[in-house]
Amino acid sequence: MALLQIAHLSLRFGGVTALQDVSFAVEPGAISAIIGPNGAGKTSLLNCISGVYRPQKGTVGFDGADVTQLRPAARTRLGIARTFQNIALFKGMTVLDNLLIGRHCHQKTGVLGGGLYYGLGEREEIRDRARIEEIIDFLEIEAVRKQVVHTLAYGLQKRVELARALALEPRLLLLDEPMAGMNAEEKEDMARFILDINEERGTTILMIEHDMGVVMDLSHRVVVLNFGQKIADGTPEEVQGSREVQLAYLGGEAAA
Amino acid sequence: MTDALGGADTFPKLLARNAERLGERAALREKDLGIWRETSWRACQERVRDLSLGLVSLGLERGGKVAIIGDNRPEWVIAELAAQAAGAASVGIYQDSNLTEVGFVIDHCDARFVVAEDQEQVDKILGMIDQLPKVAYVIYSDPRGLRRYRHEKLLSFSEVEARGRALAKEKPGLYDENVARGAGGDLAIICYTSGTTGQPKGAMLSFRNLLTMALSLHQVDPRRSGDEFVSFLPLAWIGEQMMSVATALAIGFTVNFPEEPETALHDIREVGPHVLFAPPRIWEGLSSTVQVKIMDTTPFKRFLYQRLMPVGYKAADLRLKHGRVPFLWRALYLLADLLLFRPLKDRLGLLQLRSGTTGGAALGPDVFRFFHAMGVRLKQIYGQTEISGISCIHPDDAIKFHTVGKPIPGTEVSISQSGEILSRSPSVFLGYYKNEQATREALSDGWLHSGDAGYLEEDGQLVVIDRLKDVLRLADGTQFSPQYIENRLKFSPYVKEAVVMGQDRPYLTALLCIDSAVVGKWAEKQKISYTTYTDLSAKPQVYDLLQKEINRVNETLPSAARIRKFVLLYKELDADDEELTRTRKVRRGFVEERYRGIISALYGDQERIAIDTTIRFQDGKTARIQANLSVRRLEAGGA
């Protein structure tokens, strides 16, 4: 059964139709990519899945349950985590603290229990720090563990954001342009991390990405959007061969 | 020799002795997931036993070879000892070697087993497995990213250890028998020397070689059983072998492995080692970090630094010259120690340091003085891989910056007719593996020919000038040592690399690479904006700055052998471009060939040189660089 089931999704902002009757499914364990020209509705779609936007029509199904009406925090608890196109970390805090925030949804102690610390608070703190250290090791950011985020290079900040999303221990990881603004070496590292997350941790990944080389190399499946509509959906080879996709990317005359 | 070691004459026997005597004390410690995790001597021996028997069950024979490649981890040392316990030798490979080098060493040493740390190293080896017909198994320790690999020759550490445990059940006494069969004269390791020319050569060292060296060094520079040591330099290097393996086993101190290579300096601070052996670049790095950070610190701290540093320098100079410091200076130093040096040493992780040594190349007197001023009695070590790493060390009571000290006990040093440094000791190697001719060239009557030119001072301290073949002549016959001048140039914090030329030429010239961190900082202070390394190194102000540095060096040189012209190179010299060896020595011939255009301009009348070249990145991609270099002329004969 599909882990994520998008059915007949439509989203409008006043007169603008951002998404129109989009349906597709993401199988568990797969790496899927959403591609499309600027303004095609990719980020809007991601926002509908993570709960930032509520679609006017259609449903978002996660693991067999309809989550369309759930708030983002509730979806996070179910196992959906994301990163943002423009880094959304707490810039004045250390890498460790940023990652610990990612563990918040797994903590049961409240303000009082956490403040008293001893007992459950202490146990949770130790457990969460141990989980985070695994992620730090996994993403190779040991050297910057205690540095304040805004002092880090852009590519490293992207990696820290990915680490925070992993701290949630998601079943579905949404990545909004994980490679944007990176140099060749950083891209290669990021591609390796995405593959490792998928293989080692078994996390299902849905990403928006513009770098076609990356998309075609990494993804098992590609969904193509154009002007809010799904125009293709299949393996990278199928999508590359699709005439509609060629039209959308290259324009009518060039493809003809 | 074996008296001091309780009769143990091989590494595995010493391991058994330590496991018995020191038991639960820490042998190895590794920072993993943010926490220091210990392996006791007993646990270490168990892991060695399991792996060793595992290798035996896979067909490792006495006299076989096990190649090891990877970062410094406990598994590296465990694999080495496991090979030796089975009567085989270990062959370390530098973890950042390129494919050709890795392939050459693995094939040349006839290794049937390759122990590779992780996916990166496994990829290197599996990628050329067809060209390595002798390799039967590749064993990895870090499974990350390798779970889906299916290759008949690929095995994990734990699989081999499990096989070992099974074999131990079947034949309980086998490991102890194997260890007992080993003898001091057996081949322990083959160290491939990177070599500034030609293919690497494999120096064969026996347990006796390595252990006599460890004990002789111990006599003049004692270590203790509870000492902490941080292993962060390549374990394929003889220097790391003699500390992390030979000395650690002989003395029984704890070896700490950093979390990642990038965190090494931070981890040193956490460990607070008692013993630290590092090449000059690490000491230089520490000293320039302090100087850069002082520029950035609060005015009060800067004030303290500027006032108290001279006290340290004065006290150090007095102690080095007269052997003692007068009362007044001692009192002042006490104050400076309290206010500045102790906090500073704490910052660097050197507070507990008892034995700090540098080796592999010359260290600048400024850096030496800097550490002596803060109370770190840094000493120079000299030696070759072929003599197990060490032949000379500074005596505690006579540290002279221009010498490399006196021979360690049991070692004789003499100078040949041609001015070459010769040495003889029980630590001199067995020969090069499968290279009779090179062995004959290096050894005669037990004397090891170092290839270095040098002389002995009256008090018996050795001075190393340069590689014998690198002492050059100008067209008019004036002798000069490019390396000597280069080292003096590199003592400047602004200079990262220097190449001095002049063989059969009318005058000396230099190619310099600026240190981008220090010069960049300087440029910021001067409000000079720049974009890339290439841009920064082309700034006239930077040329002015470097010109002053060269003038300072020129003042100390005979006027016929002074640098007349120089160019700041548009890129750093890089081992990936084959311009440096893996131990970061300049490959002079290659550099001169590669920058032929620039060099001919240095000997012409050109003021500017247009550069249009492509450089290769580690991932094989290339980039084009276009730049305009200017040639700077210095006053002839004057400073």
Quick recap:
Chain A is α/β, with parallel strands linked by helices and about 260 residues long. Chain A contains 11 helices and 10 strands. Chain A is about 40% helix and about 25% strand.
What does this protein look like?
The complex is a heterodimer of chains A (256) and B (639). Chain A has 256 residues and is an alpha/beta fold. Helices cover 41% and strands 23% of the residues of chain A. Chain A has 2 domains: 166 residues, P-loop containing nucleotide triphosphate hydrolases (Rossmann fold), CATH 3.40.50; 75 residues, no CATH class. The model of chain A has no long low-confidence stretch (mean pLDDT 89). With 639 residues, chain B is of the alpha/beta class. Chain B has 3 domains: 205 residues, ANL, N-terminal domain (Rossmann fold); 190 residues, 3-Layer(aba) Sandwich (Rossmann fold), CATH 3.40.50.12780; 163 residues, ANL, C-terminal domain (GMP Synthetase, Chain A, domain 3). In chain B, the strands form 7 sheets. Chain B has an 8-stranded mixed sheet, sandwiched between helices. In chain B, strands 12-13-14-15-16 form a 5-stranded mixed sheet. In chain B, strands 17, 18, 20, 21 and 22 form a 5-stranded antiparallel sheet that branches. The chains are: A alpha/beta (256), B alpha/beta (639). The interface between A and B is medium-sized, with 19 and 17 residues.
Which key terms come to mind for this protein?
A: 256 residues; alpha/beta; Rossmann fold; 2 domains; six-stranded mixed beta sheet; four-stranded antiparallel beta sheet; B: 639 residues; 3 domains; eight-stranded mixed beta sheet; five-stranded mixed beta sheet; 21 helices; 30 strands; 39% helix
